[in-house]
Amino acid sequence: MKRGFLNSSKAKQQNEQSTSLPVTKAKLVSKLSHGVVPNAGKGQIPKGYESGFGTRKFFELNATSLDYDPDLYVCTAVPLVTMDAKLSDVPGGWAECVLSGHVKRMIHTTPGFPRRPLSPANGKKLYRIGEAGSKGLGMFATRLIRAGEIIIDERPMMVATASTNSIVSPDDMAKLSVEQIRQIGLREWGKFMKVVFDRMPPENQKAFMELANSHTQDGSDDITGRIRTNGVVTGFRDRNSSGAQGRYTAICKDISRINHSCRPNASWSWHTDSFSLRVCAVRDIRAGEEVTVAYCDALAPASERAEALVPYGIYDCNCGPSCSDPAGIRIGDKRRDRFRFEPVVVFAPHVPPKVGEAPDAWVKPALRRFRELEAEGLEGCNEYHRTAYQLINVYCFLQDVEKVKKYASKIKGVHRVIEKKEFPASFSSAEGIERSQYYQMSEMRKKAGIPEYEPILISFA
Ligand SMILES: [Zn+2]
């Protein structure tokens, strides 16, 4: 699944209780295998190893109850629907889920829940699902989609725990190999998820089974393999959990079709009030262009990205030179390192400009950073937004209205995605820009006869 796959908190407690299990082994168990696991499935599980599945109670007795034990898992529909509900009767549909009592209560008490997922402004789909070459199917824009626009807001078909629920006792843990414990965990998780799958309406079961599965030889079954291939992490988690533990993953009919790119033109976010996953454009997407998101941290070095993509069956991501070409990888990795660890902060100059130098020569580091971020296709990252904001403030200070407008138009869309609110309209008009803080600061200094480079520390970050 996209981002994070670890054991449950229950398994963790067992790990901690076990005195004979070496720490390194416990750590290894918490990562599931992918690729080809020899003798995967039954072959790895010792004969007579009994599953505790039947002893677990996670069938919901009263769907409207929010009083479940916070740590007990229940299978439930979100939002609640009647037993005979049809997908066509429920606007936005519903997700069949397995949730802890804590998470179920949290969802149902979220302000505004269950809001309807948002539709595109004109009610028309902005995309189609179609062939994407060696990647299988993908999502394609059917018209120009502007940065900041919502491409799709979709309620998942299924929400699953993003963890195996290992029932291996501390004693057994010490006796079994790491792979055996993983395989037992996978088998148990599979039984758990089969219950959720069986509750899904037939149309969704069919759509779910049509999704890609890159986990066919590692012990995952038809359901868990598809969860691992297509799930997107949600915004809620079990109580007392941290890191990748206690998380949940959403499997959607259309969003799960979106392919990966290390230079993505869209990003996704989870919304509990509408119980939906929302995908927004982070730069303009042309009609016919494929919509992509990053399955891994797009700011990580190429080798780390490549490793993170293997569980999705992506062995040779070639989304651009910084992914596939050795020279490009060197440049791309160096740039990403700086994007992550050396944020550019520009200060007003302390010395007069040299003769013949442009008045904005001191802004060069921020301009260069901005160009590099665009060259790497990383418009959706915070550093892009932050750098553009600095440039807007700098050019307000320099009273260069056209440049302010230029950078404002560049981050207007991505601001909506990152900040979840509209970009201040004032930066789009000369009057608004003249009223801005830095423009006014400059104006006051001019009136007082203070030159621009007078040594008063002004940071534009
Ligand atoms: Zn790539």
Automatic annotation (TrEMBL):
CDD domains: SET_SMYD. It holds the Pfam family SET. InterPro entries: SET_dom, SET_dom_sf, SET_domain_protein. It comes from the Eukaryota. Residues 1-22 are annotated as: Disordered. Transmembrane segments: none annotated. Gene3D superfamilies: SET domain. Residues 122-296 form the SET domain. This is SET domain-containing protein. It comes from Collybiopsis confluens.
